[in-house]
Amino acid sequence: MDLTKDLVLATLAKVQGAAKLGEIAIAGGAVTIAASPEGGSREELGRAMRKAIAVLDGVSSVEVRWTGDLPGREISPTDPLPGVKNVVLVMSGKGGVGKSTCATNLTMALHRAGFRVGLLDADIYGPSIPTMLGVTGRPVSMDGKSIEPLSRFGVKLMSIGFLLEDPKAAVIWRGPMLHGALQQFLNDVSWGELDFLVLDLPPGTGDVALTLSQKVKVTGAVVITTPQPVATDDVFKSVSMCQKVNIPILGVVENMSYFIDSAGVKHELFGKGGGQAVADFAHAPLLGQVPIDQSVREWGDKGTPVVQAAPASSIARAFVEIGERLADLIAARHDAGAANEPGPLIDRSGGPGGRRRLPVTKG
Ligand code: ADP
């Protein structure tokens, strides 16, 4: 049967709990479905719709663009980002766990899912967003006051990397200058109206998160870890730091969770369970597990995140589901009135009533 809008509609009509459908677009084998979740789960509805359509003859990719309103954070009259509904920090305890990779792919996944998204590279000591998104160039100011963000693949971007004379040179600015630059990125960049501003934070428990939490009300943090204890030990500290400065932990992504070889055999190269352990510690959901896949690194090096370069791949789908789960979670937290609450205190004592936090020094 020919791949037509009618066939797509008829197939979607059989999907249980189907979302309210908008426009269906078919270009070659690529099917794009606009849909509103109508209070349902974007992740579950999206997965069911993608699964149903992917098996139709001639379909090469299926994407769902979510319409409808996404609730946002509390915005005070002095908020530097009044048009930004959600500010999401992407954090990790250590470098090299794939924090920037996850930040860029999550950004692209949210964008491709229909949200208006910006990405702020707040990893001021090691900005990698310019490379991962293949962007060079300098931000300009039209009015001498506000700075226009750069743009790539429909996403607004800002990075300290855009301001360096030589991108290969080490950042030798002193802390206060970097913090000043970061503050300027929040105050002076014309981010406009966004559903999400994703911030790629430097690794560790550093003071950037603390600075940010004092400047802007963030929706929360997504914590990236790899499965092995040497990574998770440091991640526990980042989680504690967030609790200390009242940044809610929205969820945990376990990156490099496993590797599937050419024979289809799964290898857990870095052990297993780390992501769930961090999620349990943070009393937050495990948003997803991302396998090790050569294409992630290759596309990252080429300046096109894998979600953008190969949206039909299973690795892209993993990021899309993480994005949808994040949107669901933000909506659910809002409905539960918890949008502005920090995460719960963590019981690490093992004893009844013994709630305590790991010691973290402020500032
Ligand atoms: P971080 O920001 O935590 O320092 P990066 O995002 O820069 O880490 O990732 C470090 C390296 O690992 C990069 O070369 C990146 O392409 C690669 N990488 C990250 N995640 C994956 C993955 N799931 N599969 C394969 N390579 C990955």
Notes on the protein architecture:
There is one protein chain. With 363 residues, the chain is an alpha/beta fold. The chain has 2 domains: 5-66, GMP Synthetase, Chain A, domain 3 (2-Layer Sandwich); 84-340, 3-Layer(aba) Sandwich (Rossmann fold). 34% of the residues lie in helices and 20% in strands. The protein contains 11 helices and 13 strands. The strands form 3 sheets. The chain has an 8-stranded mixed β-sheet with strand order 6-7-5-8-4-9-10-13, sandwiched between helices. Strands 1-2-3 form a 3-stranded mixed β-sheet, covered by helices on one side. Helix 2 runs antiparallel to helix 11 (314-335) and helix 7 packs parallel to helix 8. The longest helix has 22 residues, at 314-335. The radius of gyration is 20 Å and the shape is globular. Adenosine-5'-diphosphate (ADP) is lined by residues 92, 95-101, 128, 255-256, 290, 292-293, 296-297, 300.
Main beta-sheet annotation? 8 strands, mixed
What would the average pLDDT be, to the nearest integer? 86
CATH architectural type of the largest domain: 3-Layer(aba) Sandwich
Q: What would you call the shape? A: globular
Give the class from helix and strand content and strand pairing: alpha/beta
* CATH-defined topology of the largest domain: Rossmann fold
What small molecules accompany the polymer chains?
adenosine-5'-diphosphate
| Percent range of helical residues | 25-40%
Keywords:
about 375 residues; alpha/beta; GMP Synthetase, Chain A, domain 3; Rossmann fold; eight-stranded mixed sheet; 13 strands; globular; disordered C terminus; binds adenosine-5'-diphosphate
